Amino acid sequence: MTTANNKKGVILEGRVLAQDFPLDPLTKKILLEITPPSMGNNQADVDRVRKELIKQFGPVRVPLSLMQYIPYICRETDWQVTATVGYNGSDWELIALEPGNTTDRHYGLAIDIGTTTVVVYLVDMLTGQIISTASDYNGQVVLGDDILTRIFLAVYENKLPDFQKAVVTTINNLILELAGKNAVNPEEVSAVTVGANSTMIHMLLGLDPSRICKEPYIPVVNSPGFVRASEIGLRVNKLAMLYSFPSVGSYVGGDVIAGVMVSGMHLDSEVSLFVDIGTNGEIVLGNKDWLVACAGAAGPALEGGVAKAGMRAAEGAIERLSIEPGTLAVSFKTIGDVKPIGICGSGLIDCLSELLLNGLINRQAKFQDGCKEFVLVPATESGTGEEIKITQKDIDDLMRTKGAVNAAVETLLEGIGCDLASVSKFFTAGAFGQYLPIESSINIGLYPDLPRDKIRLLGNSSGEGARQALLSNQKRLEAEEIAGRITYFELNANDSFFSRFVGSRFLPHTNLDYYPTVKQKLKDRGLLS
Amino acid sequence: MTTANNKKGVILEGRVLAQDFPLDPLTKKILLEITPPSMGNNQADVDRVRKELIKQFGPVRVPLSLMQYIPYICRETDWQVTATVGYNGSDWELIALEPGNTTDRHYGLAIDIGTTTVVVYLVDMLTGQIISTASDYNGQVVLGDDILTRIFLAVYENKLPDFQKAVVTTINNLILELAGKNAVNPEEVSAVTVGANSTMIHMLLGLDPSRICKEPYIPVVNSPGFVRASEIGLRVNKLAMLYSFPSVGSYVGGDVIAGVMVSGMHLDSEVSLFVDIGTNGEIVLGNKDWLVACAGAAGPALEGGVAKAGMRAAEGAIERLSIEPGTLAVSFKTIGDVKPIGICGSGLIDCLSELLLNGLINRQAKFQDGCKEFVLVPATESGTGEEIKITQKDIDDLMRTKGAVNAAVETLLEGIGCDLASVSKFFTAGAFGQYLPIESSINIGLYPDLPRDKIRLLGNSSGEGARQALLSNQKRLEAEEIAGRITYFELNANDSFFSRFVGSRFLPHTNLDYYPTVKQKLKDRGLLS
């Protein structure tokens, strides 16, 4: 894994996270000073340990696999032992018993499983802070690029076990990397939380995803709750529990629930709009009284590999780009500050925006004067020895993505009878949401033209939600409550969506009055009278 | 397995058991008529099933291993399914989901694991009745005859896994036998309860028994509670829970707790005495306000294989025996009504009693006039072609057993300051307790000389206790409560015990006034002036 790629995951690392909730992690560690047995006090070992735990937690289950070690562990350090106790959603269970006092070492993992990228956060359960982050491509990518392909292969070619193994292997390798870097034994990881979309959760748990993509779109489970992490092969303490964020349905997954929770929009009296753009775009609208969500295929235009020069956000990818008015000289920044080898999603959006603002394409997003492409980097300056350019087809793909997201937002607002002016906050989430340039995203009409102070970048809110649920039972219950509150709004059942989608193939929008700041920019540059 | 051997286990079978508690079995089966999903009702499959369960049970955990099958099971019978839900001591969990209505088939197992014999009862959870019983020697017998040998081998020759495997294999074979005979799929068994002594429970669960037999006698666990039956390899539904009766300590095990529960002495305002004689003798004295227990090695004299002609209670064993006064002709009854091949515990006690009442041995239990043995069956009439006889050594062994039990009862009564007259009921339990002839047991002083209407045979109360705990959560909690209430009385710490043991080598007792009915019999026969 390159440093540049790693950057994707470090968006939460390095800064001290504000803790707006009290620490109440899924597992607790406590030191037990146990009275040793004697002829006058011959209680059995396990019952003796349990008696101490009951004082703190009430009834605590002791798994058989731990019972057999308890006599040895207790006698190794003369009955001073550290218990790790975990909550499994309904009761407390002993997860580990260690000799001596190890209460200063208490670890959990928060995991964001994206279709493309997996990010694992090693969390200090004592402080709530992220100790270290590791990320890598989801190992499923090499088996099937997009979600639908993966579902197809899982269902029709019996590859579900391969997909499960691939993502578990990815996570396990990241766990080993984190463990090595931070001198933590994976056995010391006592709890795991995961934010991911429904298909990723199904594949992680080995559940049949076949009905996710066919009417009436019924997942196997929306609220998997807690399962034993070792049951799916995760290399952590074999009694550690894994909590998966609940989903609302096939297309509004746990990653979105995590995002809503992190945004706080579900507690706000004012209305917020939450947008997570990946291969699918998920949109949530609402406040403390109501929450409505919709989802639609945004298309893979931003995911790399679609545009001719497109690539994922890895080293050598152009991530920011500008074109100087007049000279049309292209400036850019690459990930890792090396020679460019391609362009990633954020670069593509900058590029489309700059082509528009410099009059190189018209408002229908077409090149002018018979031109069919625009060279961003000449062959001599690129890292591959070939020129990096954007073609009309690349732009058309990007327009479909922006059109789908835009139409979905408008259809949802209209369907709910809410106008954009009443939206007090606009949250962007997900891997793209973190990196998409706001101004360019507005210029091309991907984001609505709102006052900039209303726009909030949530970063990897799926991972941050996982961290919060790892650290707070109350947050975990909040996630379940959000999932239960969200009403799903079916875009496909709505005629308005398709006509909006077709009509939204203008830059930034068919109706320029919806985009006053972009209209002004175009006027300022003499592109509009 | 022979029919005769099987007889050992059938003591509860065939008669309709009075149910003095309401049926509230550890697992429940209910029919779910689930609304199928549709575009307007697209809840996920697992959540859909869980929603129905919550109506009846509150929160119900759905194990991952079941989640994956739920979509198929529900669709197989158009969303009419039968759920088996089990209680694991703290919350409810889905154990099975079957297509269609299978609520008329609901099975559990109650198991009594004796050091020598294992009895498995197949219980109908709908009626509470025993459908069928199977029993066999505990497979551990061939590895080590008595408990101390087994502990030694487990600890010093690392044979614990072998002992665990042996008893699990015994149980599994009995399960297969019951399943085959009664057309029940072992997968349909959704709960298992076990009554057994502490060492048997340790070996069943794979727990180190080494500290059971050395000061300060600390078991690994007294209250194992619920563990997954499949975790120890039992061939039942792999999500079925196994509940083990709690023990009070190393020497007062779950079998005794089960016996006390079945006797009802813990609810009685009058004082009862409970005696379970096996290799060890366990004695409980008390009432609804207090319970005291003691235990001591009774010796293996009654278990077969010690006496020269001794054998276990299997086909061909002399189980009842009498000697005609005057002619000294021996009449007997064998198990299976076949030619005798040996004599089992009950036959030995009859024999000793008859030898005494016919003046063939004196009150010191010694043959008279240089005689060293007594032939019970001549070679021509025995099934082996050899004569069956009782020797002085056999009698001496038996005297040690009766002495130990008698001394323990007297020491406990004295220690508590309770006299025999205030004992309102005398319960005998365990494999021997069921079969020992009461009059002969009193004649030799093994049992106290109480009015006969005070004496109650509990049968296999360990198995019956297991059946009750299987059928009633309240009974299960009652067992835990009994275990918590019993005070252990240490015989070895009591000088009186040893002097009583030494002094009790008279028939029936050093002080004949303790045995007025026996004294009268001896007088009637002219053996006492």
Characterise the protein shown here.
The structure is a homodimer of 529-residue chains. Chain A is of the alpha/beta class. Chain A is built from 16 helices and 21 strands. In chain A, the strands form 5 sheets. In chain A, strands 7-6-5-8-10-9 form a 6-stranded mixed β-sheet, sandwiched between helices. In chain A, strands 20-19-11-12-13-21 form a 6-stranded mixed β-sheet, with helices on both faces. In chain A, helix 5 (147-156) packs across helix 6, helix 8 crosses helix 14 and helix 13 crosses helix 14 (473-485). Chains A, B: InterPro entries: Corrinoid_activation_enz, Raco-like_middle, Raco-like_middle_sf, RACo_C, RACo_linker. Chains A, B: Residues 270-519 form the RACo C-terminal domain.
Strands, helices and their partners?
The structure is a homodimer of 529-residue chains.
Chain A: H1 3-7, E1 27-33, H2 45-57, E2 60-61, H3 64-67, H4 70-76, E3 80-87, E4 92-99, E5 107-113, E6 117-124, E7 130-137, H5 147-156, H6 160-182, E8 189-196, H7 198-205, E9 225-228, E10 241-244, H8 254-263, E11 271-277, E12 280-286, E13 291-297, E14 317-323, E15 330-334, E16 342-343, H9 345-357, E17 373-377, E18 388-391, H10 392-416, E19 423-429, H11 430-435, H12 438-443, E20 455-459, H13 461-471, H14 473-485, E21 486-488, H15 495-503, H16 516-524
Parallel strand pairs in A: 2-4, 5-8, 8-10, 11-19, 13-21, 14-16, 19-20
Antiparallel strand pairs in A: 1-3, 3-4, 5-6, 6-7, 9-10, 11-12, 12-13, 14-15, 17-18
Helix pairs in contact in A: 5-6, 8-13, 8-14, 10-15, 13-14
